[in-house]
Design a protein that fits this description.
By secondary structure, the chain is an alpha/beta fold. The protein has 13 helices and 19 strands. Bound molecules: zinc ion.
């Protein structure tokens, strides 16, 4: 992978997506999916407002054209055209004149970061409002203000995108990213970009698993997908939710609710051997769509891959989560970690040593020389011995990797060498 180039391409994609005013429904979601479609052949699903999905109802569709506040002198002081974060997401339409005191009941700002615009939503309770820098809030003079929000909240659809990549088996890997945030780069245009570029890479490989990529609005999107696809859910063997993958922070992996699944161990393995700082935390019922995938009625093996977690960076959910906050090199690094994780789950199998009584003589088979010339010849040799010793039909290559402390790639290539030489065969589950 040409990391520098891919990073730039991913960053350009994030830049294209950035200006769109997204929400959990509406035109912004459709525009976003249309841009994703230029890279990945998505199926677009439109679910009507009012559809019951478990304990929830698909909400009315929200669209917005214009929004502003004029001060007592008639000067526009807040304009949606300048930043889509200025409008409380899902604001009902309004056109009114009101005093500064009454206006302030509908204004949101961040005293601790007085130049930033906060991102606020009101999806499930009817409200209108504006978000602005605290410094600007302090300057508002007494008098009558005119407010205008030209939005609509009507029966329509919830829209989401799905890309299914058929592999050798029906067993699936689920990758999910939320697409409901407006001009916010790390949360979650970064996650969308990593998912899209991962899908592109995987589409060129021959794969053991089938891969399902979901581009869905947060919470209501995963609830809707699970509700409509319940019979398919048992095919999901591994899954990851992608978010906040473009900032400079260290990787953070939040484990699945089960905590010890193959995906949990594969991610841990990649992060541990990366030589970089990282953090692995236990599941908690707070965060992104893993909350739904890991609800007790599903309890799927789905974790959440991030760099800096939500709420642990000041820029989170503010106008400072912008195109300067994410960088091409971090996007590319996130993608390459994801590819390494996929490599593990694709190659992780259980084998039988066909010569289990004492060590086979590797020298006479020329196996050492077959892997000669490699800089880490010693660890290749160790990998052969570990694979032979632990391949008793019980230990997977990931088990052997963890126990040996070697890299998965070394263990996996040792297994391939031994298979070619008739010393190992795959353990069949059937
Ligand atoms: Zn968010």
């Amino acid at each position: 992978m040409d990391t520098a180039n891919v990073g730039e391409e991913m960053y350009r994609f994030v830049t294209d997506l950035f200006p769109i005013c997204r929400s959990i429904t509406g035109k912004g979601v459709r525009e976003t999916l249309a841009l994703i479609q230029k890279h990945t052949p998505l199926d677009i699903h439109e679910i009507p407002s009012g559809t019951r999905v478990f304990d929830w109802i698909v909400p009315k569709e929200w669209n917005i054209r214009e929004a502003w506040i004029k001060d007592p002198a008639g000067k526009k002081i807040i304009d949606f055209q300048n930043s889509n974060l200025h409008v409380l997401n899902y604001s009902t339409p309004v056109h009114a004149t009101l005093s500064v005191e009454d206006l302030k009941k509908h204004l949101y700002s961040l005293p601790e970061h007085s130049d930033w615009i906060p991102y606020r939503t009101s999806y499930y309770s009817s409200n209108w409002g504006f978000c602005l820098p605290y410094n600007q809030l302090l300057t508002l003079p007494e008098g009558e203000y005119e407010v205008f929000i030209d939005s609509s909240l009507e029966d329509g659809h919830l829209t989401y995108g799905e890309y299914y990549l058929r592999g050798e088996t029906e067993a699936e890997v689920l990758i999910s990213a939320h697409i409901c945030h407006p001009s916010l780069a790390n949360d979650n245009l970064s996650g969308i970009a990593v998912a899209v570029f991962l899908a592109n890479y995987l589409s060129k490989l021959s794969l053991r698993y089938s891969y399902r990529f979901l581009f869905i609005p947060g919470t209501i999107g995963s609830i809707t997908w699970l509700s409509l696809n319940e019979p398919k859910v048992s095919r999901i063997k591994h899954g990851l939710v992608f978010t906040s993958l473009g900032d400079s922070g260290k990787f953070t992996y939040k484990k699945s609710r089960r905590g010890d699944t193959e995906i949990d161990r594969a991610v841990a393995e990649i992060l541990k051997k990366s030589g970089e700082a990282f953090e692995i935390c236990d599941f908690s019922p707070y965060g992104y769509d893993e909350r739904q995938f890991c609800s007790p009625g599903f309890n799927l093996p789905v974790g959440c891959l991030m760099r800096t977690p939500h709420g642990e960076y000041a820029e989170y959910h503010t106008s400072a989560d912008n195109l300067d906050f994410v960088r091409p090199e971090y996007l590319a690094d996130s993608l390459s970690k994801c590819l390494a994780i996929v490599e593990i789950i694709e190659a992780n199998r259980v084998y039988w040593n066909l010569n289990p009584k004492c060590e086979p003589q590797l020298g006479k088979r020329g196996i050492y020389s077959q892997i000669g010339g490699q800089t880490d010849g010693k660890s290749q040799e160790l990998a052969l011995l570990w694979v032979l010793n632990l391949s008793d039909g019980k230990n997977s290559l990931l088990d052997i990797t963890e126990r040996s402390g070697l890299k998965f790639s070394a263990i996996s290539s040792a297994a391939q060498t031994l298979c070619k030489n008739g010393l190992l065969r795959e353990h069949s589950n059937g």
